[in-house]
Amino acid sequence: MKPPVTVLGLGAMGTALARAFLAAGHPTIVWNRTPGRSPELDALGATRATTAAEAVAASPLVVICLLVDATVHSTMEGIDLTGKTVVNLTNSTPDQARDTAKLLDAAEYLDGGIMAVPAMIGGSAAFIFYSGSAAAFEQHRDTLATLARPEYVGTDPGLAALHDIALLTGMYGMFAGAIHALALAGSEQLPAGSFTNRFLLPWLTAMLTSLPRIAKDLDDGPAEPAGSNLAMQAAAYDNLIDASVAQGVDPSLVVPMGDLLRKAVAGGYGEADLAALVGVLRTAAG
Ligand code: NDP
């Protein structure tokens, strides 16, 4: 028989997690603040606990999927975690994850970052970052693999959140550019579908193939002179802003990249490639 699992939180994601455990044959004990949420889990064999403490007591492995970090702290307050492994899949910052690991130090702690939407859970495209207790990860790897491909990224509990947030910033940056491009196309009534399928998607796909080269430049130093140096890009970028304003499109999604290009050129990186912007950004934050 497969080991039992407790799931705290039956929102859209917690319900998908519980459903995947049930489908794989894990006895699954569930708790949600608002009783009776996701009634379909009852028919699948879930056992409902009336309190979070009762749910935690029922399994050695406790998976938490609540709204935000503060919800986790208030829910877990005063619960005996002796001998438990807690896997917190609630979205957090790296520092929040480290604080939660300290707060729940009576348990073996793994923090997680889910790279999927609920419908993807249990499917082959989903993956979940884990960091924290290596022993807990090894012990529960097979159970966690029920949800999504498990990717363990280190003993620092904050590292899963760092990976998660880095991928999300990549995604939002990409969508910000695409949304702006669609607004520009729409300013001349170009059909979004054909503009996207004929031009935007192939262009973005082609541009993304340069990412491994950018990463290699960061790891090993630039291998060759930039084909499209930052001085040229900064000069051309003004046209992106001017054309947007002239077309009645709010440029606020694309202005920051122009600012960063100018800052890089002013800092002496005019002959460098896009990879140099990573250092400029890190210096600015530091
Ligand atoms: P939902 O809004 O659907 O569910 C939120 C859950 O948190 C519910 O179980 C809710 O309980 C509970 N909750 C909220 N406030 C409290 C509280 N004060 N005390 C106790 N429980 C509380 O969110 P999701 O399930 O979609 O998301 C859960 C986590 O998963 C989030 O951290 C989210 O960022 C992350 N995530 C979600 C993804 C998605 O696409 N949905 C993708 C990747 C990560 P109640 O029913 O009582 O309100």
Indicate the topology.
Layout lengths: L4 E4 L3 H12 L4 E4 L8 H4 L3 E2 L3 H6 L3 E4 L4 H8 L8 E4 L5 H10 L4 E8 L11 E6 L1 H11 L4 E4 L6 H28 L5 H17 L2 H10 L9 H17 L8 H15 L6 H10 L1
Parallel strand pairs: 1-2, 1-4, 2-3, 4-5, 5-6, 7-8
Antiparallel strand pairs: 6-7
Helix pairs in contact: 7-8, 10-11, 11-12
Describe the fold and architecture.
By secondary structure, the protein is an alpha/beta fold. The protein folds into 2 domains: 5-155, Rossmann fold (3-Layer(aba) Sandwich); 163-285, N-(1-d-carboxylethyl)-l-norvaline Dehydrogenase, domain 2. The chain has 12 helices and 8 strands. α1 links the parallel β1 (5-8) and β2. α7 crosses α8 (192-208), α10 packs antiparallel against α11 and α11 (255-269) crosses α12. The radius of gyration is 23 Å and the shape is elongated. Bound molecules: NADPH dihydro-nicotinamide-adenine-dinucleotide phosphate. Residues 5-149 form the 6-phosphogluconate dehydrogenase NADP-binding domain. InterPro entries: 6PGD_dom2, 6PGDH_NADP-bd, HIBADH-related, HIBADH-related_NP60_sf, NAD(P)-bd_dom_sf, RedAm-like_C. Keywords: Oxidoreductase.
